[in-house]
Amino acid sequence: MALETLYLLLVVTGAAVVTVYGDPGKKMVCYFTNWAQNRPGEGAFLPKDINGSLCTHIHYAFAKLDKDLKLAPSAPDSYKNNLYQNVLNIRRFYPQLKVLLSLGGWKMGTEPWTNMVNDDQARRNFIQQTVQVLRNVGFDGLDLDWEYPGSRGSPASDKYKFTQLVSELRNAFDNAGFPRLLLSAAVGASKYTIDTAYEVDKISRDLDYIVLMSYDYSGVWNHKTGHGSPLYRPSRPVGDDKYNNVDWSASAWVERGCPRYKLVIGIPTYGRSFTLVDPNDNGIGAPIYGAGKAGEFTGEAGILSYYEICKMYRGGQVTWVPDQKVIYVVQGDQWVGFETVDTVYYKMDYINGGGFAGAMVWNFDFDDFTGTFCGEGKYPLIEKMSSMTKPFSLNWV
């Protein structure tokens, strides 16, 4: 059944009746990045490499705000080389798919967002033009990826301006005809970001679903080793450790007013890596010189794709962290925390058991999409996520 169809799911709990609009089925949201095509050799990822059977939604990352504060492609070949259309055409083979255009990302920063939301005319122009672009190009909706309202140069008042933007987009989308345009947002998972960036209950009302970026809890900025996406807090948390985990973040969004059936939990297909000060002192919280070495294909210090990590996994010292349900590997002075099929199992079990909307993966091109590196077939991590996507349990709605 299509997402644009209106569903009513009535769940009676005592005297309370909950009405759910939208598709009550689980979601598997997969991000496609328009820069991975430029990686060398086997690392180059193109629309033809997408396996649409694994996902319910694809988010095309990223579009940007141009100098006129209007929606524009960030990659010059989005139109020229039909990159947009090549991704959209996947729906011909997988009609269950919805393809949304994702606006923003870390590199776009906050200034364009701030300028747009604080200028009434610019905001109206953006909304009107966005509807036209989505309809003309053929996207099923828009994904807002503002990182983040209220920080990185964005004033505190942008928290409320973001709510206004979401509300006005919702109204415009609802009046833009059939099929109904979808509206989602990729949101932060840290305590600071949740507190400063979002009126959770208000934006949750107007968004069709919310994708929680529940990763990057640890990185070189912490000046010590740590897994980027632990499921639970450590048994003996120190400082902010009790907040820096998937379970805390998901629970915080729910407690602040986000319905479970709208919250999609993010799972990374990359690992955060570090260079150790002492290879013999290599547990979680060990001192580091800085980021780990850049990968052969991805080329960014401190980040390794799953298929690049496989080489370390086979030749390194692997450690399972039972309380946090994560794994890391050490090879010489290189340390990386990452996901495996087993850790994905625990996260999907958490998502299903908790009644959440489903899983989001960042992203397609970090998994072993060719199946030539890890010996586990194509897309081993995303395949596991997709295979465990289950219908809702009414007990949790």
From TrEMBL:
PROSITE patterns: GH18_1, GH18_2. It holds the Pfam family Glyco_hydro_18. SUPFAM superfamilies: (Trans)glycosidases, Chitinase insertion domain. Residues 26-392 form the GH18 domain. Keywords: Glycosidase, Hydrolase, Signal. Residues 1-22 form the signal peptide. InterPro entries: Chitinase_II/V-like_cat, Chitinase_insertion_sf, GH, Glyco_hydro18_cat, Glyco_hydro_18_chit_AS, Glycosyl_Hydrlase_18. Belongs to the glycosyl hydrolase 18 family. This is Chitotriosidase-1. It comes from Aplysia californica (California sea hare).
